[in-house]
Amino acid sequence: MKATIVTLPGDGVGPEVTAAAVKVLRNVAHRWGFQVTVWEYPVGGASIDRFGVPLTEETLQACKRADAVLLGAVGGPEWDDFPQQIKPEAALLALRKALGVYANIRPIQTFPALYHASSLKEKVIAGTDMVIVRELVGGIYFGKPRGMDTSRGWNTMEYRRREVERIARMAFRMAASRRRKVTSVDKANVLEVSHFWREVVKDVHRDFPEISLEHMYVDNAAMQLVMNPRQFDVVVASNMFGDILSDIGGAVTGSLGLLQSASLGDSGALYEPVHGSAPDIAGKGIANPIAAIASVALMFRYTFKLPEAGDVIDQAIASTLAAGYGTPDIAYPGCKTVSTEDMLSLILHAIENIQEERKNGVII
Predict the structure, then answer these.
(1) What is the CA radius of gyration of the chain?
(2) Which member of 64, 97, 247, 332 is catalytic?
(3) Is 271 a residue of the active site?
């Protein structure tokens, strides 16, 4: 098997964590016996500085041709005052739309070694294992009309039946291989678009009678995420609601530096850490590469159809954390605080050990 991957390192710590993730990608691909070709293109602020736009047509076409795209992070204070249409973040919306990646998959799982890192009590977060399925190319981020003048600003939140049906089906299918529970998040008591969302999800549910379905208002869902996250299995939400709720997941796990994501469509695939560009620590060699590396694990599952390879990466991350290592964002008293490069080396070493144990018939 051969695969072509486009990397978009982006801004801030993006290039650092992407470089680490690519090394893991190449290492694991080699172990599974297939060739990966990696092409790198600028995006976001890096692209603005070179070409005057956050996403060039050349970069976009390369992403469309690739089997998958690995994104670092975009943005920074030097571009904050740019017009909305050419800010670094505009590249993300354009890229998602062009690739047709309508479903953003964000696993949220707590590691026993890092229960201390969360602002929540261990008894609340212990054992949390959920996935947020966020609709990614519709809703208020893409709705028209939109605009602003000196007296007001406006955006339109709109969903079409097809958009809700396909994201709901993905959530139900995912729940079928997990704990068979879907929580659909909306604001149906206030918003007509959310009432529509709820009715369509109900319709789709008829095709998945073995899956339990509950509906939850978004404000209650936010509260429940920090009060009892273990109750959730698969959460499906609109673009804006899913965006907000998945970032709350960072409070549950203890750091956004641990959260990976996959954005999937009928053909395109985009993988990226949830965290931002963190310009305050860029170039210091202390960025946490785990989210980017874990995003590669998702790539092996969803694009390469090699779930065992993804499992090995996840196990390597977990064992490294369990051994007491951490970058500064997740460090704690007694922790062995390491750099970005050291964390990468530790994870690669753990991958090697896990592979050897598997070859020798040791069940992990």
Answers:
(1) 20
(2) 247
(3) no
